[in-house]
Amino acid sequence: MKIVVSEFIWEEGLQILSEQGDVVYNADLWKEDLVRELVDADALVVRNQTRVTREMIRRASRLKVIGRLGVGLDNIDLAAAREAGIPVVYARNANAISVAEYVFAAMLTFARRLEEATAHVKGGGWNRRLYTRMELYGKTLGLIGTGEIGTRLAHRAQAFGMKILGYDPFIPPYEVACTEFGVQLTDLETVLSRADFVSLHVPLNSATRNLINRETLALMKPSAYLINTSRGGVVNEDDLYHALKEGRISGAALDVLVQEPPQDSPLFKLDNVILTPHIAGLTEEAQVKTSVLVAQEVVKILRGEPSSCVVK
Ligand SMILES: NC(=O)c1ccc[n+]([C@@H]2O[C@H](COP(=O)([O-])OP(=O)(O)OC[C@H]3O[C@@H](n4cnc5c(N)ncnc54)[C@H](O)[C@@H]3O)[C@@H](O)[C@H]2O)c1
Ligand SMILES: O=C(O)CC[C@@H](O)C(=O)O
């Protein structure tokens, strides 16, 4: 068996794959080189940078499985994989806690400004009034998407005494968790207009692209913050820039951008923006879990066993 891994994977996962076959591991295996390697490959394992295209799938005539070291599947042509009869397995729920904790870090950053206060003190300041900020207790968290990450975030927000509103048109699988964690399910307009923090947890697809745009941003309170850990394309960055610059919302934390890495962006010039390089799911714990889970599921498919992490 030949297993091609085209982006970084933790050692624990690599070990599992190596016991099953010959692993070609190159964390920067791009385009033509990758296509060449795939010609006689049985499995391909990617993260979110490798674009798995219809053409690539067509040329990989021996391919039996695609493993995705993460959750978002927008870099894989799922229709082409389905038509070719190639299952795609992914790391369902493996990084959800890490992302939920990232969202808390962002909310607490906006609420308490510890880094800014530190810089202020180191610069000789001691203005206690300036850093008299707000509690998360009693504030409203608005979840757009209440799946694995949304429900884990709700669990943590409940412990902080936050009110939680959720919008998810495909809720049934997570309805019990939403009830348990105090999520009041409602429509998109209500979530956006009432939330103090709006957090996005939807996949990027044709229905969610530009979901946050001029019109939907206009529904948010001027005191509210937007947190995007889903995918850059879910937010229209130009509309967000203007909303932030004109004070129509208070701030935004963006872990994901339309173009990654970004060349340049007007968002860089704003003080009320937190920007991170797609790290919400990147913790040691989540990456060990992700690598082991995906490696195990890839191996199951190669052995002809059923996997519970196949994309439906
Ligand atoms: N920044 C990171 O490091 C990071 C890490 C993990 C996941 N993600 C992103 O977060 C997304 C969500 O991850 P998850 O594990 O919670 O996935 P999930 O599939 O468990 O949950 C997604 C939820 O979104 C809902 N949804 C789909 N379309 C919707 C729409 N139009 N409006 C509202 N809700 C909609 C689904 O019903 C589902 O409940 C992933 O698709 C991925 O793009 C990013
Ligand atoms: O592949 C990555 O490293 C990003 C992971 C994250 O965005 C996901 O969708 O799980």
From TrEMBL:
It comes from Desulfofundulus australicus DSM 11792. It comes from the Bacteria. Its EC number is 1.1.1.399. This is 2-oxoglutarate reductase. One of its GO terms (molecular function) is NAD binding. It is an enzyme of class 1 (oxidoreductase). Catalyzes the reversible oxidation of 3-phospho-D-glycerate to 3-phosphonooxypyruvate, the first step of the phosphorylated L-serine biosynthesis pathway. Also catalyzes the reversible oxidation of 2-hydroxyglutarate to 2-oxoglutarate. It catalyses: (R)-2-hydroxyglutarate + NAD(+) = 2-oxoglutarate + NADH + H(+). Belongs to the D-isomer specific 2-hydroxyacid dehydrogenase family. Keywords: NAD, Oxidoreductase. Pfam families: 2-Hacid_dh (PF00389), 2-Hacid_dh_C (PF02826).
